[in-house]
Every structure is written in C-alpha cells, then in structure tokens.
Design a protein that fits this description.
By secondary structure, this protein is mostly helical. 67% of the residues lie in helices and 0% in strands. Among the domains are: 104 residues, Rna Polymerase Sigma Factor, Chain: A (Orthogonal Bundle); 165 residues, no CATH class.
C-alpha cells in the first residue's frame, strides 16, 4: 500500500496539471475540475492495490475523472449541461474495463496557464494559482512558500477561482496581438516563481529548491507548447541562474556571491542547454528582456573565472536592455559592469545618481559600498554596507555583508 501511495504521489505531481487542463475543456470551474480529479485519485488509491496499477496511469485517471465530472455537471442547472455531458461521454471508453486503456491525453496546459495568469486576476494571486493548478502544489506548500497562513491562502485561491467562473474568463490561448500582450503576464508569473525560490526573502536558507524546479518545469512546458523567442529566453535564463545554485553556499559559508563561487560546482549540463537555447532565440536579432538577461547570464556562465568575464559585452547588453526596460535596477547593473571593465570613476558617479530611485533597494547600497571601497573611500563604504544590512532580511546574506563591512578596518 505504501508503494501505491508513493506512486500516486509521483503521478499527481507529474500529471495533475495536464489532467486538470484536459478536464477544464468541459467546465469553466476550476473547483469542479479539481474535485473530479481528486475523486479519481481517491478511487485509484482504493482500486490499484487490488486490481494492479494500470499501464497508462494518466489515461486511467482521466477516464475516471471525466465520469466524476459528468456527475458534477448533472447536478448543475446550466442549460447546455446535456450537450456537455454528451461531449464528455463520447470521449469515454466503450466498456467498463479501463484498467488497460491507453490513449493520448490532450495537452491543454497552455490554456490553463493563460487562464491562471489572466490580467483580470489580482497580481498577488496569479503565482499561487499557477502553482496550485499547473504544478499540483498543496495550499499548505504554497502558503509556506509565501509566508502566509493556510486559511488566508485558501481564501485568496477561492476568490480567484470564483472570479474566473463568474467573470467568464475564457479558457483559451489569446490570438495575434493579444497573445504577445498576455504572454508578458505569463512569463512574469513564471519568473516570479523562480525569484521566490532564489531569494528566500525572509528565511534562514538562501534557496527553495522546490519552487525553482517548478518554475523551470513551467518554463519547459510553455516552451514546448509555445516556442517563441521570449519563452526561450525565460527558460534559458532560469537554467543559467539555476546552474549556479549549489555554489551559492557551502558547509562553511551560507552565502557566496558570484564573484567568489567555485565554478567547478556549476551545472555544466544546464549551462550548455541554456546557452544553446538563448543563442538560437537571439538569432532573429530582435531580442526581448528575457533573452537579453539570459545572454548576460550566459556570458557569466561560460567565463572560466571572474577576471575573464566579458564586461564590455555585458555593459552593452545592459544598455540594450535599458532601452526596452528603462528601470533604475537595469541602470544599476550596467553601472556595475561599467566599473568592472575599467571605468570605475564614471560608473560610481552614475550609480550615485540612482539613489533617490533605489533608496529602499538593498543591492544598490551593497553595490555602492563595493565601488566606494575600490575607490578607497572606506567611510562611505562602511555607511553603505550598513544601509544594505538594514535592508536585508535574509540571514545568510546579512551575515555576508556584515563580514564585508567588518573587514574594511583591516584593509
């Protein structure tokens, strides 16, 4: 029984998004589709130990879930209920023996992704809803990741699902110009999921591996279903960032920044894949913001050491990125690249002018402290390290900055 339970847990995490998306073809209610799928998994937990595990577990589960969905729809008062039921029944096997049913499952996850990331939904619910529906994470897991109570997260998800149903949000992939407009929201959601894993903002640990894996999984799904250049750029960016995960800490150091990482620990498989993807994506010479960020990350990844980094090219790429996304954070990163390729004084002057826009942004003060230290301005460096420390909520990163500040007196 334990083996069956373990098998079911693996199937649920791997297939629930695809199965839920297929069920959503017949109902606008995510709750109804989720209930039908949950009942199918419950039936599997009861039947598989006695009758054996079916050859195609996902097809078995979808068949049972479709039958449960018919039961749910029969209780509804929708005028088109009968035609919907007939449509579902036409998809069911002709006999009751579903143990060896083996048929393709329509992959409708792209529709589900665009539904969960619809701009009509509040921005703070798109990420949790995507994790719940596409990745199969539990409400408890999502609440823990976002430092929320389980009850509060459940209410947020319930409101979002209700809005999808009541507002008649289409379960569809947008077309033409609307696709590019909505795609930006989808990519942003996946990127936010990865960022949540990468910063572990309030925690003791520096990373949350589970969320990183889910973000990369979603990016892969999206790239497989919609191989557009910016989708490729996002997948490449996540792979390249994630390739450095194991080098960001060690048994003696809780936080190791890029400059000091042991590059032999970087995942070369991810680096090769990510670099190949972004090079192909940028071949049309019309790069977007994710492609540019991935290209910058690739330059870091292929450099044998920090000193050999191609800072002039990184500086140029940040310049192009700033034209597409003129944010002070992009300008800050370009200043850092400018400083490292030799224009330290000019970079420091330009960086200092960003303070009003970035006065609550910890990396600004950390970067300013580093550049001030290189210019020999120890007091300014100490002051800015102090400001960076005050804005840091991750314990590992705070300890690193505190050590950097304390070392200045020995320089």
């Amino acid at each position: 029984m334990q083996k069956i339970s373990s098998d079911l847990a693996r199937v649920f995490r791997a297939e629930s998004g695809r199965l839920l998306a297929a069920l959503m073809l017949h109902t606008r209610s995510i709750d109804v589709a989720e209930d039908a799928l949950q009942e199918a998994f419950l039936q599997a937990s009861e039947k598989w130990p006695q009758s054996g595990t079916p050859r195609n577990k996902a097809a078995w589960l979808l068949t049972v879930a479709r039958r449960r969905l018919i039961d749910h729809i029969r209780k509804d008062t929708l005028r088109n209920a009968e035609s919907t039921i007939q449509t579902i029944e036409d998809l069911l096997p002709q006999n009751d023996d579903i143990q060896e049913q083996d048929y393709p499952i329509p992959d409708e996850r792209l529709r589900l992704i665009f539904t969960c990331c619809h701009p009509a939904l509040a921005s703070n619910v798109r990420v949790p809803l995507t994790l719940k529906t596409l990745c199969g994470l539990s409400v408890r897991e999502i609440a823990r990741a976002f430092l929320s109570s389980e009850a509060s997260m459940q209410q947020r998800l319930t409101r979002a699902k209700r809005k999808i149903r009541d507002a008649g949000i289409a379960y569809a992939v947008p077309e033409n110009d609307a696709l590019d407009e909505r795609l930006e929201s989808v990519l942003s959601v996946i990127y936010l999921i990865y960022n949540e894993s990468y910063t572990a903002f309030e925690g003791q640990s520096l990373t949350r591996d589970d969320l990183a894996k889910e973000a990369i999984h979603l990016a892969r799904v999206l790239y497989e279903l919609l191989p557009k250049p910016e989708v490729a750029g996002l997948l490449s960016l996540l792979l390249l960032h994630d390739s450095r995960r194991s080098a960001r800490s060690s048994g003696t150091q809780a936080f190791i920044p890029l400059e000091y990482q042991d590059r032999s620990q970087w995942n070369q498989t991810q680096i090769q894949e990510g670099t190949s993807i972004v090079l192909t994506a940028m071949s049309d010479a019309k790069p977007g913001i994710y492609q540019l960020q991935a290209a910058i990350s690739a330059l870091h990844a292929i450099s044998p050491d920090w000193a050999s980094t191609d800072w002039p090219q990184i500086y140029q790429l940040y310049g192009i990125l700033y034209q597409l996304n003129p944010s002070p954070v992009v300008a800050l990163n370009q200043c850092v690249a400018q400083a490292y390729y030799g224009e330290l004084d000019a970079a420091y002057v330009r960086l200092s002018k960003l303070e009003d826009a970035l006065k609550s942004y910890q990396p600004f003060y950390a970067a300013k402290a580093e550049l001030a230290l290189r210019l020999g301005e120890k007091e300014t460096a100490i002051d800015n390290f102090s400001l960076a420390i005050s804005l840091t909520k991750n314990t590992a990163e705070k300890d690193f900055l505190l050590e950097k500040k304390n070392q200045i007196s020995f320089i």
